[in-house]
Each structure stands twice: as structure tokens, then as C-alpha cells.
Amino acid sequence: MKDKRKAGVYRGVLTAIVAALLAAWLPRAHAQAEMLPAPVAWALSQSEIPENAAAFYVHEIGAQRPLLAVGATRPMNPASSIKLVTAYAALELLGPAFQWVTEAQATGALSDGVLEGDLVLKGRGDPKLTLENFWLLLRGLRGRGLREIRGDLVLDRSYFAATEHDPSRFDEQPTRPYNTGPDALLVNFKAVRLSFMPDHEARLVRIVAEPALPQVQIVNRLRLTNGPCGDWVNRLKVDAQGGSAATRLTFSGRYAASCGERARSYSVLPHAHYVLGLFRELWRELGGTFTGTVRDGAAGPDARVLAAIESSPLAQVVRDMNKFSNNVMARQLYLTLGAEGAGEPATLEKADRVIRDWLATKGLSFPEMVLENGSGLSRVERISAQHLGQLLLASFRSPVMPEFIASLPLAAMDGTMKKRLADADVAGQAHIKTGSLTGVRSIAGFMLDAQGRRWVVVSIVNHSNAANAQGAQDALLSWLYQRGADGGCCAAPR
User: Fold this and answer.
1) What is each CA distance from 201 to 198, 206, 223, 224, 226, in whole angstroms?
2) Distance CA 447, CA 459 (A)
3) How do residues 223-277 score in pLDDT, each as one tens digit?
4) Of residues 442, 426, 445, the one with CA closest to residue 434
5) What would the DSSP string read from start to end of 338-350?
6) In this structure, what are the phi and psi dihedrals at residue 367, rounded to the nearest 5 degrees?
7) For the chain, which domains are there?
């Protein structure tokens, strides 16, 4: 009986000691979590970025509390890292195998290869309806015997609600393809790819357009020069003039022969006239005849589907979107969530509601989050580093986790991380989504440390010197990896 009493006393004393030690340790652990690691703090100061303009959040998968949370609750502009919200929601709500279908429908009688009526192209928001895929759709029409269209080309773009889009509003760069607005029938990102090719014998620069659209006139006044290539893009002087149906691009300035062949894409036509010009050229090359014009509309109840083409599966689309941070694809996907989740036509408000309802089903509430278009090409989108980190933690428990993580750029290997951390130990060990705007730099994703433990890592900087923040953010990844190599342990108990 005495032994039992002694054992009970010992257990009580031991429990009290553990509780006292834990009580003493937790504040220190909490304080450590709110202190930047020395290498990160040094790199941040070298960049002349104050700590109150940055946020950091590091959390080991499976741990109860984060290892690091500095400024993590501040609402901040994450730039393209907000694509993680759009991508994860799409993979769960639509499924990795989801595909977009674009149809070609006939509204009149088709006899002996002649369509006595309109050809309707019905778009459903395909984020990657490339030049090659559009050609395959038209090749399908020719393969089914259609050779002459005596009506118009009608574009059914009703899957997305009609809105006005000003491509110059964001940064006054209206010809840059990333400023292309979303469209239910977005073909080839509405881009014309120009190749600049030096001709050493003729001492001139040739410019070749793909696709070569008759509505886009190229005026070449470039001078071929000697010397280093350097920043060849900023030495190009581009003047875009024209209206809704045609445009003229005039190039002047210097182009160094040492640059070799370079390419750059431009977006200069409205959606409807881009599709019309591309359709005419490809249809003519395929041996077809078309003399009509283009207009918006919809197929009647008697229309027949003549040909259709499916997109790549969503998992592949998300990978292309995240690896190369494609804003146009993200905006298309964001609106697709609105159409599929809240009904056609898609609107930004519907997409926002669908995503917030989905977060609620997962027990996640991000009251500070602001979504404008789901791409990060925005001055108003906001989220905290902590909530972005919590989203990543939740995704690791999701059935679509493999597809989601595989969509992120791999440090020093591919995508927007290909040229970062090439000589660091963390190379190949971190899947990181990057974000970049004037005054914004962010990273968010997953990494393995030297002991094989997986971490969620988020860092966001909003400051006029944010362009210098890469050193601090790379230092964060290297510090966390090396911490594992040194035998460091998590900051909080499991």
C-alpha cells in the first residue's frame, strides 16, 4: 500500500515538473517562432527591406504549431502565389481529369461539302486552346467533308459573362500577352509570336510573325548592330497603332547581331477579329472557302455539332499554369470555377463565392483574403502568409495532393525556379510557387530538409525594394534545409 502511495506521489511530482518545464519552454518557443533566423534577417537588411514589410511562415507537416511565424497574420499582396488558391480549388472541385470542350456547330443545311448557313464556334473557357489545337478542330471539319461556308463565323462566348477589359489598365502595357483578358473562346492566348532573326550578309533584321494574320501589319525599321546582346527587349522601340479590326506594329531601334534569333509575343487584336483572322488563314491553308465575316451569337436549337476538341486534362493545365505562372490561364480557370460551381455565365463574383464556400467545407476561413481574378495580376488581391500556409497544409491531406505539388516549380530545375538556388543544397528539394509584381515578391510551397522532413514555407514582401527580396527568400529555404542537416528539430511538439 505504501509503495502505491509512493508511486502516486512520484507520478504527481513528475507531472508537476513536466508541466513546469513545458510552461517555461512554450513562451521561449513562441518567442523563437517570432524571431527571424539570422541569415534571413541579414539578407533582408542588406536588401533595405524593413521587417514590417515582410511576412514569413514555416510549418512542418504534421506539427501542431509553426516553426516560424513573423508578420504572418498581415494581409499582403501575394502576386502570383494566389494561383495556389485557384489551382487547389480547381483540382478538388473539378477533378484532375476535367476537360474543356470547344465545338464547331452548323446552323444551316450541309450538302456536298457546302454549308448554307453559319458556322458557330462554341467556347467553354479552355485555358489552353493553342494554335495547334485550333488547327485540329478545323482539320476535323475538313475531314467530315466541309469545304465551303456561305454564312458567317459566329462566336458563342456566352460561357463567360460579357465584360469590358482594358489591357492597359494594369501596367500600361496593352500589347503584352499577360494582359489579355479572359474569354470563353480564347484562341492561342490571342498572341502573335514575332521572331527576330539577324541576316549578317544583308546587314538587316528579319521579323517573322506566327501566325501571320493579314490584320497585323509589321513595319520593320530595326538596325542591325555589333556589340553585346544585353537587354535586347528594352532596345526595341514598338509603336502599336490601329483599331478594332486591324493594327500596325512599327519596330525601330537597334538589334545586336550577337543576340542571334530571339522571339517575343504581342497581343494586338480584339478576341473576335483575332479568331476571324486565324480562322481565315488556317481554313484557306486546309483548302476551304469562306467569304463571310464574324459576329457574336449562339447556335439555334437545330444546330448540329460537326466537330469538337477536348483540352488537356486539368492536372496538366494546372501544371502549365503554375510552372510558368501563366496569368491568362489562371483567369480562365478562375471563371470556370464560377461557371461550373454557380452556373453560367461565369462572373468574378460567382468564382469568389464558389472558392469561399469550398474553403468553408474544409473548415478554413480567410476573412482578410481578397480575390479579384485569381491570377495575382492584381493590385488588390490579398492573403496572409499564415492562411496561405494553412491552405498548403490542408492540401497535403487532399487526394489531389500529388497533382497539386507536381504543378509547382522545382527549385533549380524548372519553371520560374529554374535559375534559382542552382548551387545550393536545397536545389531539387523544394516545390515553390513564385510571385512577382512591382513592389511584391513572394514564395510559397513545400520543401524537404536534409533529414527528409517536409515543410510548408511562405514568404511575402510588399515594399518598394521588393525586387531585392530574392536573397532573403532564398536564404529562408537554405536555412531551413541546413537546419535539418545540423540536426535541428521542430520548434513545437507534435
Assistant:
1) 9, 12, 13, 11, 13
2) 13
3) 999 999 999 998 899 999 887 788 999 999 999 999 999 999 999 999 999 999 9
4) 442
5) HHHHH-SSB-HHH
6) -60, -25
7) 32-97+315-485 (3.40.710.10), 101-166+271-311 (3.50.80.20), 192-266 (no CATH)
